[in-house]
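This part of the workshop introduces the protein records we will be handling. The structure tokens are whole numbers drawn from a learned vocabulary of backbone shapes. The record below serves as our worked example for the rest of this section.

===
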Amino acid sequence: MCVCRFTAINGGRVEKREEILILSSIDRLNDTVGKMVSFLVWIGAAILVWEVVSRYAFGAPTIWAHGYTQRVFGSYFIMLGAFTLVRGGHVRIDIFLANRGTRRRAVLDVLNYSMLLIWGAALTYEAWYFLQESLLWGEVDDSALGHPLWPIKLCLLLGSGLITLQAIAEIIRAAIGVVSPNLHHAGYH
């Protein structure tokens, strides 16, 4: 088993931790992609500002800004799903987790992440066919500029693939917590 040993600071206390190397690699991949994609929000904001200034200051609205902001923010949200999962930013229903031991929380996480895995795998599977059809037929939107739709479908494929991969990593971590609840792993800080 590939194990990565590292030192972490938790609440001012230094801890030695071990993690399966592939799991930390998946985390790093999703963290890196998330950080890169996070800059899309600034591009989307700049397009919106341009549209507002053009429309209200110069009386010359654009025909392209609406379509591009939809694509930028759509890509932004789908590509940040796995990053948000790595960072623990998705909504959790604490009523089911409060006052539960580490092993019970781990069992619930296995169930939860298994549902995410099923959803992510189904979405990734369908996204692959959406992308293929879009490329095959040269699919464009119904705007005046006829933007191609394959880039947003590629983002759907990549984003759903990344969240599926992260779900697999989280299932493994939770399963380790079921078997050995005293081991530290993500989600049980």
